[in-house]
From TrEMBL:
Keywords carried by this UniProt record: DNA damage, DNA repair
GO cellular component, one term: protein-DNA complex
Lineage: Bacteria, Bacillati, Actinomycetota, Actinomycetes, Pseudonocardiales
GO terms, biological process: base-excision repair, AP site formation; DNA alkylation repair
Organism in which the protein naturally occurs: Pseudonocardia sediminis
Molecular function via GO: alkylated DNA binding; DNA-3-methyladenine glycosylase activity; DNA-7-methylguanine glycosylase activity
Protein's UniProt name: 3-methyladenine DNA glycosylase/8-oxoguanine DNA glycosylase
Length: 317
């Protein structure tokens, strides 16, 4: 009698080849999904030729290996109960639902970035939970803190990535599911360096996670408003999710510590607050986030005039 295979290590892979009808920057489209160099849900191998991604889906966990061939064809191989769901959504993941053709650049740095990076598109994971959990962890802390907490939660409460050993890169993990997150004891949150405010927001979302997935269908402002109904989810978090879950071209991360100043220095040569950024990006409505992505992808870095914030370790508090 065959034994159960919850990790999907012995199941047959699901495969698909797809030729994008547009110029594709594979890494550029997928890189916003990566949560730091140590992200256990993401790997790049063979000098970036293959990108590995582990996710949850409505059908269960999935591991996806995505390769781009010299002729432009993308080949994806998936393992796990959710592999077919991920494979079906491959074009959306790589930006097929995005349409940058109507975008107009009103600033030289944006126009230059668009010219140099024709393959930059906004991809859609079609999945709220996998982007919502790390987004909440990134609220009001340094990136180092947030990435450390995400790694801890994935390693301690996520399952091993589906797929055969020796093929799937070692150490890859599935993000913790809402059910698993609800069962995390208090001391484990402390051990992962997650403070009370972020913990409460995550738990609130875990309780209604199945309802929040509808935001990816609603899209736009309506989708962001649905997310913001949950206590602890504000404009910034909703925008971070919208950018990734449905490739929202207008979801700017207002409330971010860095983005207003980066936009301000790139476009005007000086710092901005959220009000100033709202004003300078007004001509780009309804594609303000696309303008921000071009600025970020251009390689521009604003001057630094002071020390960086030091990461806090809530495990010692």
């Amino acid at each position: 009698m065959a034994q159960p295979d919850p990790a999907g290590r012995t199941g047959r892979p699901v495969e698909r080849e797809w030729l994008p009808p547009f110029v594709l920057d594979l890494y550029g489209v997928l890189s916003p999904l990566r949560r730091g160099r140590g992200d256990p849900t993401w790997r790049t191998v063979a000098d970036g030729a293959t990108i590995w991604r582990v996710s949850t889906t409505p059908q269960g966990p999935a591991t996806l290996a995505i390769r781009r061939r010299a002729d432009g064809t993308v080949r994806a191989t998936g393992w796990g109960p959710g592999a077919a769901w991920e494979i079906d959504g491959l074009p959306s993941l790589l930006g097929a639902d995005d349409d940058p053709s109507s975008f107009t650049a009103y600033h030289p740095i944006v126009a230059d970035a668009r010219r140099r990076m024709p393959g930059m598109r906004l991809g859609s994971t079609r999945r709220i939970w996998d982007t919502l959990l790390p987004a909440i962890l990134e609220q009001k802390v340094t990136g180092t803190e947030a990435r450390r907490s995400f790694r801890e939660l994935c390693r301690r409460f996520g399952a091993p990535a589906p797929g055969p050993e020796g093929v799937v890169p070692a150490g890859m993990r599935v993000p913790p599911t809402p059910a698993r997150i609800r069962a995390v004891p208090d001391w484990e949150w402390h051990r992962a360096g997650v403070d009370h405010a972020r913990r409460r927001a995550i738990l609130h979302c875990a309780v209604v996670a199945h309802r929040l997935e509808r935001a990816a269908e609603l899209r736009g402002e309506e989708g962001r408003q649905l997310l913001r109904r949950v206590p602890g989810i504000g404009v910034w978090t909703a925008a971070e999710v919208a950018q990734r879950a449905w490739g929202d071209p207008d979801a700017v991360s207002f409330g971010d510590f860095h983005v207003p100043n980066t936009v301000g220095h790139a476009l005007l040569g000086h710092d901005l607050d959220d009000v100033g950024m709202l004003e300078v990006l007004a001509p780009y409505v309804p594609q303000r986030q696309r303008a921000v992505r071009y600025i970020e992808a251009s390689g521009f870095r604003r001057p630094r005039f002071g020390p960086r914030f030091s990461p806090r370790d809530y495990r010692d508090m």
